[in-house]
Amino acid sequence: MGAMAGISNSKSGFIIYLCVGYYLIMAVLAPGFFTLNNTMNLLFNLLPLLIIAIGQTYVMLTAGIDLSVTSIVAMCSVLGGFMMSSDTGLFQSEFAAILFGISTMLLGGALIGTINGFAVAKLGMPAFMVTLTTMILFSGLAIWLTQSQNLYNLPEAFIDMPYTSLLGIPIPVYVGLLVVLVAYFLLNRTIFGEWIYAVGANTKTAKISGVNVPKTIVLVYVFSGLCAAVGAILYTARLETGSPVMGQNILLDVIGAVVIGGTSLFGGKGKIAWTFFGALFMTLLDNSLNLLNLSFFIIMVVKGSVILGAAILNTVLEKSLKAT
Amino acid sequence: MLLKMNKISKSFGEVAVLKSIDLKLEKGQLLGLVGENGAGKSTLMNILGGLFAPSRGTMELNAEPFIPNSPNDALKAGIAFVHQELNLFTNLTVMENLFISDFPKKSMLGLSFLDRKKAIRKTDELLSEMGLSISPLAKVDQLTAAQQQLLEITKILNNSPQIIIFDEPTTSLTRYETEKLFSLIRKLKADGTGIIYISHNLEDVMLLADQIMVLRDGQLICQEDKTALSIPKLVKAMVGRDLDQYFPSRTTMPAEENLLEVKHLFGGLVQEVSFSIRKQEVLGFYGLVGAGRSELARLLYGLDPFTSGNIRWKRNKISKPSPTKWVHEGMAFLTENRREEGLMIQQSIEKNIQLAGLTKERSLGNLIPKQIIKNKVRQQANANKIKYHDISRQAVATLSGGNQQKVVLAKWLLLGPELLILDEPTKGIDIGARHEIYTLTNNLVKAGSSILLISSDIEELIGLCDRILVMSEGRLTKEFQKGSFDRSNILAAALHGQEKDEKR
Lengths: 324, 504
Description:
The structure holds two protein chains of two kinds.
Chain A: H1 2-9, H2 13-29, H3 36-61, H4 69-84, H5 94-121, H6 127-146, H7 156-160, E1 165-166, E2 169-170, H8 171-189, H9 191-201, H10 203-208, H11 213-239, H12 251-261, H13 272-291, H14 296-323
Antiparallel strand pairs in A: 1-2
Helix pairs in contact in A: 2-13, 3-8, 3-11, 3-12, 3-13, 4-5, 4-6, 4-11, 5-6, 5-11, 8-9, 9-11, 12-13, 13-14
Chain B: E1 3-12, E2 15-25, E3 30-34, H1 41-48, E4 56-61, E5 64-65, H2 71-76, E6 79-82, H3 94-98, E7 105-108, E8 111-114, H4 116-129, H5 145-157, E9 163-167, H6 175-190, E10 194-198, H7 202-208, E11 211-216, E12 219-225, H8 231-239, E13 258-267, E14 270-278, E15 282-286, H9 293-301, E16 308-313, E17 316-318, H10 323-329, E18 331-334, H11 338-342, H12 349-354, H13 358-361, H14 370-383, H15 401-415, E19 419-423, H16 431-446, E20 450-454, H17 458-464, E21 467-472, E22 475-481, H18 487-503
Parallel strand pairs in B: 3-10, 3-11, 6-9, 9-10, 15-20, 15-21, 18-19, 19-20
Antiparallel strand pairs in B: 1-2, 1-4, 4-5, 7-8, 11-12, 13-14, 13-16, 16-17, 21-22
């Protein structure tokens, strides 16, 4: 209750109303929007985006940016495909294949995150530059490694994972919930979380106050890499293939979700709950425009306009809040 | 009469900031304007400077009604404002700053071009008039704070104003540079310029002013000739009560044991500095700006690397000092740049105060015991007499300078450091808050900690320290023990290096 009051009277209240309003309008306008089938569809599209956007939130809270998430998704998908596909046949048992496949994906994400974090924190390079180059590097590497071929024949249990339910709830929902809870806990209950906000709010002050700034920065990029890897696991299972071009179109959605949620590009301000609604809005937008049967390019135009409109409205509202 | 402000009132919404203020200024007169932070000095000057319109009241300039609609109007009417925060483009050169709005032009083939040669020549003239020996093409961010201050004044004099408002012009200047500024001010006065001088440094105000005006809570307490006033009288008028003692007394003596020993430290400006600080000692560092005092503190705290020398903390050698290590060991550093290095200006008071002490309070490795921290932060904020209305939501940006400084101090006191380095802790802070800061640091020493105090205010050092070290050009030049503090000797030791230069 207290948390809800906190959300609704701050500027993030805006994104909640936007989500609810948009949902209601589309329920009327878009054919087949308000159905169980589409709701499941929404959920499956939301989860990986939400998870990757949460990692991005951590990075943006330190006034950084992680453009490499798309390449991490592609790289992890390829790595997982290699490990698990019966074509490569590395493992006899399905269980071992899945276990090693998932571990490799997580490890790969963490590793790329470490490279990003190290370059930003220890070498003092701009995050934009670092992650832009790792994005290009690992996207290319993923395609080169697979010679642009998809990896099929993944283990049955892995492919079925999105449709397997525990106590009536599909497994990806548990995964998403786990990531949200862990991310929330780290950010709000640990010194690491407090340090993330401090680094973003004022790096110099943070340093002088004893915050281990390099360590904090490396860890947020590792976290972002891990989140992207988890996103890759869900995408790979759902599409039943390890693909070197997986996730190449999600960068706008990820950054859009975080920013539209209200996290500041300048660091120090943002919440997991805001990013949740930001990701929800991006998913609703994508889904409804698809249902309206618009062409891919029209969808891009509309999406860009809606995000711009929302951002303008958000800024105007914030200013009027400040003025009172 | 050069300027008359009649019954000026100003309200922001419901809040009355100024209540019927009268102000008179003659040609060639200097009016000192004093009052605590929030007394309404800035608002009054911003009305004069055209930034705000008064809610009620009128102004007359040279006996004509004066109604500025914008700062530009006021500037055109000849009212110049030297702000405490300088209005310089630090990424541009000295010359570009001086001529930013009115660059000399030359005409070639019917087209108008910038005349750089002429600009450089004029810049040189203006600079030498000010006694500034800097290149017109030097980038402003490479100048010292004092040079920047003087450049700002040069820029303003370029418009030959009738009235100049100085808001705390000496906070970043040393005594020596201050004297230079004062002789400039006296010259301006002699030329017939009316001057309004705002400062927390009452001695300066008493020295310079013809008349002094005291504001308190938006009300005019008095405008009187200097001769009728004294510092205690001013303090009483500003604060509304007697401050029994400006520097609160402290009876503790330094212990025998050394807490920190620094030997032969070199790095940047700092040239072979050795000193030690004992437990429960208040050690002062005096020197001109650029003498290397802040640089020494930065080397010590691990913010800049040192080239050679060694540091011992409780007899243990510290080979690679870093803030993280020092905070863990119990050393804290309140830097001179409150906004840039002391605060997270947009974050809440609570987040700011808890930042350094968190690691000490953590449980189970990395967890924050929220309620315990919350209570401690609140206690510390109250002990520091920070005036706030919502500790966990209010951004420190909304606080006055004095209260902001008390937030930084609260952050360090919550950590409970064994050594607290204070670099110009009372710069630009009003008397009430200053007194509270002195009391708080004294209490810290009584509880067993040591303080390294860097200050450009000799009175402050004499009032608080057990021992004063003087630096000049990166070296230690002299040491003074409590009981044998002598203002002119200390100043002489600080000027030591410069005199040597002049003799050469």
